[in-house]
Write a structure and sequence with these properties.
Layout lengths: L2 H21 L8 H18 L2 H9 L1 H4 L7 H18 L5 H5 L4 H11 L4 H49 L5 H55 L4 H9 L4 H23 L1
């Protein structure tokens, strides 16, 4: 579970609601007309822009925004280095059993291609093509929320115009001026809130998650090709660590030192 997403959403909604309460009666900010204009207009515009299949995938991507990253690059590097060591000792065919035990389909496919003796350039082309289409699917899923974030303020302004028209059409009735102005302002408020507190942040979170997943896949591709080339495991490790930030490299080194110390103690006993 990605706590940052949950904390950010709950904190934002809570503080905005608290501000409304401190300003006075929170019920003055409730308007069914405004909600229908902003919600209905945004929903209709998004449905018009995408197919139902794309909308379904976009909504399904919400679980990605609220879930923690499954694969850390440094964990993948450790796996690939262990594969490089085994391939160097026993040959590439020895990785066939390891490939079947992998949960990640992308890494499994890459290792199987290497075991089958596929040309290195063809291996790169196949994996990079799959990565490109993965990025395109992510962009479409993210685009659903970006479009909603783009449309909701616009429909907030449309609601403002509707409220002003209603107000101006009843200038002879002072009692109708207040509700008309309220609809105008509350609709703008709804559009701005839902865009900047929900849709735009979720789209940005999906973009960040996509970049993290693509980085992991790029590490896999480079590691798979290095294993196929028969490179020294130490060289493979140093090459893949170049994908990591300095802090992550240090964490990987510390984990390896800890594991190495544990192995040494076991051997001594």
């Amino acid at each position: 579970m990605d706590l940052a997403t949950i904390v950010g959403l709950v904190l934002g909604v809570s503080l905005v609601a608290l501000g409304m309460i401190l300003e006075g009666n929170i019920l003055i900010y409730v308007s069914l007309v405004s909600a229908l204009i902003v919600g209905g207009g945004t929903l209709g515009g998004v449905i018009l822009a995408y197919s139902f299949r794309q909308l379904k995938n976009g909504v399904g991507a919400l679980k990605v925004a609220f879930s923690k990253q499954q694969e850390e690059p440094r964990d993948i590097i450790s796996v690939l280095v262990s594969f490089a060591e085994k391939a160097r000792r026993e040959g590439l065919l020895a990785l066939e059993d390891e490939a079947y035990q992998l949960d990640d389909e992308f890494l499994k496919k890459g290792i199987q291609l290497v075991v089958d003796g596929t040309d290195p350039q063809l291996v790169r082309n196949i994996l990079e093509t799959e990565l490109d289409f993965l990025e395109q699917r992510h962009a479409i899923n993210r685009g659903v929320f970006e479009k909603a974030g783009e449309l909701s303020p616009a429909f907030g302004m449309i609601g403002t115009l509707i409220g002003l028209i209603g107000m101006l059409s009843h200038l002879d009735d002072p009692d109708a001026i207040g509700p008309g102005m309220a609809t105008a302002l509350i609709t703008t408020l709804y559009g701005a809130l839902i865009a900047n507190l929900v849709f735009i942040p979720l789209a940005e979170k999906l973009r960040v998650k996509s970049e993290e997943e693509i980085l992991v896949r790029e590490v896999m591709i480079e590691g798979i090709l290095s294993i196929q080339a028969g490179e020294n495991p130490r060289i493979v490790e140093e090459k893949l660590k170049a994908f990591l930030a300095p802090k992550s490299r240090n964490q990987l080194d510390e984990e390896q030192e800890t594991e190495g110390g544990a192995v040494g103690r076991n051997a001594a006993t």
